[in-house]
Amino acid sequence: MGEKEAVFPCDLCGCEDAVEVPFVRDYTGGQLYHICMNCGLIYTKKRRSYKEVADCWSNELYGDPSVLLPSSYSALNPHVKARQTYVVEFTNNHLSLEDKKLCDIGAGEGQFIQYAHMLGAEVFGVEPSDKNNITIKEKGFNSFNGTSEDFASHVRSADETIAFDIVTIMWTLECSQSPAKVLKTSYDILNQGGYIVIATGSRILVPFKKPLHKFLSTNPLDTHPVHFSYNTLNGMLASNGFEIEYENPWIENDILCVAARKTGKKDIPWEKDDYLKVADFFERWHRDSLYYR
Known about the structure:
The protein has helices at residues 50-61, 78-95, 111-118, 130-138, 148-157, 179-189, 212-215, 230-239, 275-289; strands at residues 6-7, 18-20, 34-36, 42-43, 46-47, 101-105, 122-127, 142-145, 164-170, 190-201, 226-227, 242-247, 255-262. By secondary structure, it is an alpha/beta fold. Helix 5 runs parallel beside helix 6 (179-189). The two termini are 31 Å apart.
């Protein structure tokens, strides 16, 4: 797999005590997710470097936009376009995109920033795929060709101040080698009082939205190293100085979407998940999924 894999503790609380997620190895070709016994975050311990993970997404998992398969992904797929439309409307309704400077981390082919631009935003993308950056440029938008970690280094070495009003991260935070580092980069490039908008699937500790074999795959787990519930996403944001002000009705929705303000606070409260309840949730999900094989 290239560079030697590193072993990670819990991304949220740093605890190393964890239990295996029940039945997951049956769906992932033997790969393991764990549940943190302290905060309930679902994560995989073994991960390659952030560059290798980004390269896997850029060159292996992005595929034909006419087909959405577990082994290939494209933001130009109609299903993904619909999700992006939802998020851009959520963002515009709560924060107003008119005259706002917006940075989309994990910009893909630039579809989302195109939508945001149509609603009045000045847009910019951060995207590791060479091919996708060409597509973004062809659409007339600016982007940084690299990961969020690379962009953070660029920001630190830049002479000019780089500051945005809104940072959006859609189905990307959970696919990053280190979500905390992505949030740190987001914090650093936001104006004080600016907002981060996170969108991900609403899957954990909610009514089952799909069978477990449609949720998990045999793709390398470090391309999706964490899975968030509302509580653990709130915890990740709070631990990095962000306070959620707006959220969608995620309990019944396919999407979990929040807008959190950059506060600088160190003591934003958040609620942990009980790891036993998370384990029981996966056991019930497995049993229910057997009806849909």
